[in-house]
């Protein structure tokens, strides 16, 4: 299926013409930035020269010259019968998905659609943020370049971000890390001894659970807080837990959000039992329908440690995360972190700082794009008999309840059809069960998701529909 951008839509994406820049240069650079930001996908056909000059009110010479510049720089090619088609210089790089523990599920062919990864494409404006960061680099390269706690200006920006959300924070409480998982690992190393019990909701993000196990913790599964906060409190009490790992904002994989009452209840339990709460806020900014109607967990539990990341908001390739810790714990966490690495790359820290200043969180354009993609994947409810889902108001994936215990079989059938899924058991704290559940991320582009949905529906016809008919026949 060919992708085409209309002259009207391209005009909207380009925005107002830059003052003091030749028209052809503005047009060529604008399209180049759209390709670099992923807003014009590799292989998208551009409007004809006649269509574009009418829409933009420029001369034909301007459009012809701009398209020529794009071809010369490798951002477009002229195809017989197709006009001018944009391209990523050298072609898009396959892979780049978020690795889970089932390495066999990672793509082996360019035509495989990887739905084991719940992460969006880069935010619009990322390329310009890199350009601005490069201009700042001369201020830093005269020194050695080690910032083990983070570049000061990024720590200040993150502290202000927490303060603006109602959690008073100073920069000394912030440690910049190479991603959220590295932040969690540093917290676990600082706060746990071998065999210490740590409570984790099940299902949960598998890489975080593996990080706990690597730290020597004894992982104790608990129900989801949003399903039964009293039962979770009981698990904390009976297990004599030292720590609890929590994801109150768009929990991965379920998308659930803790209410203010649930946050207050859990915070009281942490205080009364001496449990250190470790809060994963990786998904906090990925709201789609409306912002979270609850205060941050740190507002309820000042003694908790919060870990965040730029990966779900800006781009996973930045590999920048952060820790916000109470003053009493920040020193121990910083020392533990230094046993793992000596700091995150300066350039990427400057990029994140630039993005925090320019857009703050998930961009409006990204939000609308992800909402549209979510709708594509929700279409599976009509195409896969018996599938049920609670539609989350944010996050990046759907957590489907299947009518039969077919998760692993569905994963196998989908892989044969070119789509990679992660079975429900991968998200179980003990790695077993959840055969009636499957996660379908929806942060990819619409065209790819339509192909993925077709393949998943066909795969369900291979393995799920016969089992569903058999179950109905037995019940009758």
TrEMBL record:
UniProt keyword Transcription present: yes
Residue span(s) of domain HTH gntR-type: 21-89
The keyword Protein biosynthesis appears for this protein: no
UniProt cross-references to Gene3D superfamilies, sorted A to Z: Type I PLP-dependent aspartate aminotransferase-like (Major domain), Winged helix-like DNA-binding domain superfamily/Winged helix DNA-binding domain
CDD domains registered for this protein in UniProt: AAT_like (cd00609), WHTH_GntR (cd07377)
Keyword annotations of the record: Aminotransferase, DNA-binding, Pyridoxal phosphate, Transcription, Transcription regulation, Transferase
InterPro entries for this protein: Aminotransferase_I/II_large, HTH_trans_reg/aminotransferase, PyrdxlP-dep_Trfase, PyrdxlP-dep_Trfase_major, Tscrpt_reg_HTH_GntR, WH-like_DNA-bd_sf, WH_DNA-bd_sf
An MF annotation (GO) of this entry: transaminase activity
Pfam (any one): GntR
Similarity comment: family membership: In the C-terminal section; belongs to the class-I pyridoxal-phosphate-dependent aminotransferase family.
Name this polypeptide is given: PLP-dependent aminotransferase family protein
Organism: Flexivirga alba
């Amino acid at each position: 299926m060919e992708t085409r951008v209309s002259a009207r839509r391209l005009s909207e994406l380009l925005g107002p013409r830059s003052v003091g820049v030749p028209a052809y240069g503005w047009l060529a650079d604008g399209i180049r930035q759209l390709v670099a930001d992923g807003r014009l996908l590799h292989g998208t056909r551009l409007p004809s020269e006649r269509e574009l000059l009418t829409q933009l009110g420029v001369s034909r010479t301007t459009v012809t010259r701009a398209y020529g510049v794009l071809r010369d720089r490798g951002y477009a090619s002229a195809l017989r019968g197709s006009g001018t088609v944009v391209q990523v210089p050298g072609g898009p790089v396959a892979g780049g998905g978020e690795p889970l523990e089932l390495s066999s599920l990672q793509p082996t062919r360019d035509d495989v659609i990887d739905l084991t990864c719940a992460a969006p494409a880069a935010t619009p404006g990322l390329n310009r943020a890199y350009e601005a960061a490069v201009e700042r680099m001369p201020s830093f390269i005269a020194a050695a370049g080690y910032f083990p706690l983070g570049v000061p200006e990024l720590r200040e920006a993150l502290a202000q971000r927490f303060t603006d959300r109602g959690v008073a924070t100073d920069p000394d409480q912030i440690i910049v890390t190479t991603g959220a998982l590295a932040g969690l690992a540093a917290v676990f190393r600082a706060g746990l001894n071998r065999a210490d019990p740590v409570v984790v909701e099940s299902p949960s993000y598998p890489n975080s659970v593996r990080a706990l196990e690597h730290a020597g913790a004894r992982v104790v599964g608990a129900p989801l807080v949003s399903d039964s906060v009293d039962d979770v409190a009981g698990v904390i009490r009976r297990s004599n837990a030292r720590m609890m790992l929590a994801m109150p904002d768009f929990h991965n994989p379920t998308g659930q959000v803790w209410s203010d009452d649930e946050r207050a209840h859990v915070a009281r339990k942490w205080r009364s039992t001496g449990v250190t709460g470790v809060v994963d806020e990786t998904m906090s900014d990925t709201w789609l329908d409306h912002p979270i109607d609850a205060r941050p967990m740190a507002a309820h539990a000042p003694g908790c440690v919060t870990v965040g990341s730029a990966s779900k908001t800006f781009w996973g390739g930045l590999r920048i995360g952060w820790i916000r810790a109470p003053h009493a714990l920040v020193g121990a966490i910083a020392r533990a972190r230094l046993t793992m690495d000596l700091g995150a790359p300066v350039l990427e820290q400057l990029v994140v700082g630039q993005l925090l200043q320019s857009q703050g969180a998930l961009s409006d354009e990204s939000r609308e794009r992800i909402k549209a993609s979510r709708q594509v994947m929700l279409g599976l409810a009509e195409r896969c008999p018996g599938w049920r889902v609670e539609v989350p108001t944010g996050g990046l994936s759907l957590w489907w309840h299947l009518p039969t215990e077919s998760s692993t079989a569905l994963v196998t059938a989908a892989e044969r059809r070119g789509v990679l899924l992660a079975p429900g058991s991968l998200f179980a704290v003990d790695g077993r069960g959840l055969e009636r559940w499957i996660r379908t991320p929806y942060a990819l582009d619409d065209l790819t998701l339509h192909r993925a949905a077709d393949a998943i529906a066909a795969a369900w016809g291979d393995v799920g529909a016969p089992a569903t008919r058999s179950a109905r026949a037995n019940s009758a």
